[in-house]
Structure formats: C-alpha cells, structure tokens
Amino acid sequence: MLEAHNIEIARGNRRLFSSLSFALAPGTLLLVTGSNGSGKTSLLRTLCGLLAPTAGEIRWQGENIRSLREEYWKHLVYIGHANALKDELTASENLGALCALSGTEPRAEQRRLALAHFGLADREHVPVKVLSQGQRRRTALARLALSTMQPLWVLDEPFAALDNAAQLQAQDIIARHLTAGGMVVMTTHQDVQIPAGSTAELNLDQSAGR
Amino acid sequence: MNALLRAVIRRDLLLAWRRRSDIATVILFFVIVISLFPLGVGPEPNLLRTIAPGIIWVAALLACMLSVQYMFAADHADGVLDQMLLAATPLGVIVIARAFAHWLISGLPLVILSPILAIQFDLPAELSPVLTLSLLLGTPVLTLIGAIGAALTLGLRGGGMLLALLVLPLYVPVLILGAGAVDAVSAGLGGEAHLLLLAAQLVLAGAFAPWAIATALRISAE
C-alpha cells in the first residue's frame, strides 16, 4: 500500500501542487495526467524518493519512505524518461546490470525471453547504440518482465516512442502485474485500456495549488 | 551484496573495455607529461634524479583528476544514476564498487608504468619499489577524493574547473607524503613513516569518502 499525505512539491520558486493525497491499494493502476510542466515527472520522482516533497510525506506499508530507504526501494521499479541503457553494452547485458541493482539475477535465458516478449529476440547481442529509439524503449520495458517480484512499478511515459504492437505488449505486462496484485503508477499521453484491476486517475491540472 | 559488487565492477570494466580509447587518453597523458620533463630540463643526471619522484607524482595526480571528472557524468546523463540511487543495496556499497573499478582502470596502470618511466630520470633502482608502493597507496586516495568532487559538481556548467579547485587542495597531503617517501629513502632516512601516513589516509578515505560521495549523488538528483 502506497500512500501520499498532503504532499507539496516545488521546483525552483514555483509550487507545482500542494495538499495532494491519495492511496494506492494492491491491484490498482494510478494514471497521472496533466499538461506539460504540470509536475507529472516530479511527482513520480518524489514517489520514488529521488526528490523530497517540500511538505507532507509518502508512506509505504504505513512507514515514511525516507526512513525506509532500501527497504522501500527493493519493492520498487522505476523506469524514467531516460532509458538507463548504456550505449556500449548489449540489450542483454544492460538488463543484467539493471536487475543486479534491484537485487535480482536473471539468468541469460530469462533475459532472452523478456527481450523476445518485446520483439527483440534477434537484437539481444548487438550494442544498444545501434538500436532505434523504439527498440531502446522496448529494451528498457523488457525489465518489467523480469520484475514481477517487485510489487510497485513507477513508469514515466512508458509508451513513448513505441509502436502499436509494443504498446499492446507493454499494456499486457502491466495488466498481468495488476492481476497478480501489483501496483502501477504511470504517466501517459496515450489512451490506454488496461482491462485488469481498478484504474484511478489523478489530474494534476485540477489539483494545482497556486 | 557480493553479487551486486561483482555485477557493478564487471559492468564498469566491460564499459571501459568497449571505450578503451578513453583510458588510453589518460595513460598517454601521464606518459607524455613525464617524458617532456627530461627533454625540457636537459640531461643533468643529478637534477633529474632529484625531481623524478615529484614529477611522477604530480603527473599521476593530474591524470587521476582528468579521469575522475567523468566518473558519474555518463550515468547521470543516461538515467543509470537514478537506478543506482534506487537500488536495493545501500548506495555506499555501489560507490565503493565503482571507485574500485575506476581505480583498476585508470589508477593501477599508472602504478605499473611508473618504474618504467622513472628510468628516463635515471632514478636509482632501489628507489623504484618505494615509488611504486607510494603510488599504490596514494592513487586510490586520489580516486576517492576526486570522486567526492565529481559527485558534488555533477550536472554543473563549468564543473571541470570547479572540480579542480575543490579537489587539488585536498590532494596536497597525498602528494607531499607520496613524493616525500621516495625522497626520504634516497636520503637514507627510510620511508616507513611516509608510507604509514599514506596508508592511514587510504583507510580514512576508504571509510568516509563512500558516504560523502553517496550523499553528494543524492543531492545531485534533486
């Protein structure tokens, strides 16, 4: 259970929003919407604990994430705007390095399957620098297929640069995660239909407090 | 935790191997700077022998500062640093692994090359082991202190200059003790005191620098 209590976030001198509260139960998808610059990415980074809210607190299983630290992060997968891929490493090596950070060690076979799920079966051993934008995004998302043990996924524009087929694959993985009792927070500009679980929407344009 | 240490070190070594021209630049810089001095100063053997430890140490110090600048920059730009900040293992442990890998890549080659480069200065053979040992103890300290500076200046415009201003004063004790160890042995005093103090600096830096680097990296993400 992830809860936000009256959080306020400011970037520079500008207050993005204040007194924002919500709770996310297992099996729920929280869709964060809002215009450009409304603070979607800042909210997501705050939920991860990368940014500190200027007021209020975020709790995981009833405890403030700033005191939980690694205890919280081991339950979390964050995929940001940047794909967090190294150009010189292959897709498979990149996945291995990212999973090692979250404390899992998928075997080469598992990584191959995860990449194949996103249609990268034949691109597994080429350096990421020769992949297209969409293929890089697919590689970054392939990590989700290896992260079923982490209940909370925080995804910033996961469908950016993806074609329709890959979008459906990603939605399918998210839906399966929700059915298994996972929690997903994501921002998107696309229309998404994720059949499983319950979906809550948080529009930052409406909750802007300035 | 051991698995993570291994994974981080392996990743950094693999990346360094695939970008080997970057390391070659640092090592060539070290070799060229040292080789210029005998050419510039002239073939006066006594003078060359006297200045050898200082020159080699200053070159090692500058080469370390040159390489440490980019220790976190690429990870910061491509988002990997965020993933390290959100890792299931304490950030300090990851920082130790990265600093060790960085030293293996850009510090250890300098240590290995230094006795060979010392021949240009006609440094007596019995002084070579002291020089190597002082660099072996000193270069990890340079890496750790430099990494604090690199983490503090991450994402800043003109960070390179600021890094030099921050880090060079902190390098001074290492330089004095390192070059001093060789001088002390050549004067017949024995270099134990200098080397022990260098080792103490290494222990101190090893204990506190990872924590300082981790804190600075967290601030850079805000």
> In which range does the helix fraction of chain B lie?
over 70%
Chain pair sharing the greatest interface: A-B, 32 and 26 residues
Summed over residues and divided by their number, the pLDDT of chain B gives a mean of 93
**Measured distance between first and last alpha carbons of chain B:** 26 Å
Shape of chain B: elongated
Structural class of chain A: alpha/beta
What is the string of SSEs of chain B from the N terminus onward? HHHHHHHHHH
Oligomeric grouping of the chains: heterodimer
* Alpha-carbon Rg of chain A, integer: 17 Å
β-strand amount of chain B: under 5%
Q: Count the strands of chain A?
A: 9
What does the largest sheet of chain B look like?
Answer: none
Radius of gyration of chain B, in Å, reads 18 Å
- The number of helices of chain A is 7
Q: How would you sum up the global shape of chain A? A: globular
Question: Given the helix and strand composition of chain B, which structural class is it?
Answer: mainly alpha
| Percent of residues in beta strands of chain A | 25-35%
How does this structure look, described?
The complex is a heterodimer of chains A (210) and B (222). By secondary structure, chain A is of the alpha/beta class. In chain A, 32% of the residues lie in helices and 26% in strands. Chain A has helices spanning 40-48, 65-68, 70-73, 91-101, 108-117, 133-145, 164-179; strands at 2-11, 14-24, 28-33, 55-60, 63-64, 76-79, 152-156, 183-187, 198-203. In chain A, the strands form two sheets. In chain A, strands 6-7-8-3-9 form a five-stranded parallel sheet, sandwiched between helices. In chain A, α4 crosses α6 (133-145). Chain A is globular and about 50 Å long. Chain B is mainly alpha-helical. In chain B, 83% of the residues lie in helices and 0% in strands. Chain B is built from ten helices and no strands. Chain B has helices at 2-18, 20-41, 45-68, 73-78, 80-85, 91-106, 108-118, 128-152, 159-186, 192-221. The longest helix of chain B is centred in the last third of the chain and has 30 residues, at 192-221. Chain B is elongated, with a radius of gyration of 18 Å. The two termini of chain B are 26 Å apart. The model of chain B has no long low-confidence stretch (mean pLDDT 93). The A-B interface holds A 45, 48-52, 69-70, 73-74, 76, 78, 80-89, 93, 96-98, 100-103, 105, 127 and B 3-4, 7-8, 11, 14-15, 18-19, 74, 77-80, 82-90, 94, 221-222.
